[in-house]
Amino acid sequence: MNEMKLVFKSKLVNEVFARTSVVAFLAPLQLSMEVLMEIKTIVAEAVVNAMIHGYEGNEDGDIYLEVCCDDEIVILDIYDQGCGIEDIDLAMQPLYTSREDLERSGMGFTIMQSFADVFHIESRPGVGTSLHIEKRLQ
């Protein structure tokens, strides 16, 4: 498997950096546009969630993005050391958002889950949140 690790600050401008870095890393696999768009969407949703919800807009927090891939699978691990999620089951509900003040749609986890073959969240309040996502290519 090939592997890439990135660490970047929780600044909204870095969401584009994260997406484009993942796409560039996956370029040798010659994935379809549909699969690339799904992976880009997963990365964008996960990174923005960490920024807005995990770090609550604090731009000094670090976001960790790890990608492993081969011809059969892409594995994404995205984690932060933010505030964590109190109730994962509630956060997973479509249309639920903890940030109504920002007019968030509450669909981020639903969208990521729909594009993934494996989607797992671990979170501890005050410690942070970790997402493990697998996308099969065959």
In short:
By secondary structure, the protein is an alpha+beta fold. Helix content is 34%, strand content 29%.
Q: What is the topology?
A:
Blueprint: E1 2-9, H1 14-26, H2 33-54, E2 62-69, E3 73-80, H3 88-91, H4 108-115, E4 118-124, E5 128-136
Antiparallel strand pairs: 1-2, 2-3, 3-5, 4-5
Helix pairs in contact: 1-2, 2-4
CATH superfamily: Histidine kinase-like ATPase, C-terminal domain
Rg (CA only)? 14 Å
User: Mind telling me which CATH architecture this is?
Assistant: 2-Layer Sandwich
Kindly report the CATH topology: Heat Shock Protein 90
Alpha-carbon distance between the two ends: 15 Å
Secondary structure: helix percent: 25-40%
**Secondary-structure element pattern, one letter each:** EHHEEHHEE
Number of strands: 5
As for the number of domains, it is 1
CATH class: Alpha Beta
Strands of the largest sheet, in order across it? 1-2-3-5-4
Number of helices: 4
Given helix and strand content, the structural type is alpha+beta
Average residue-wise pLDDT: 91
* Gross morphology: globular
Enumerate the spans where pLDDT stays under 50 for 5 or more consecutive residues: none
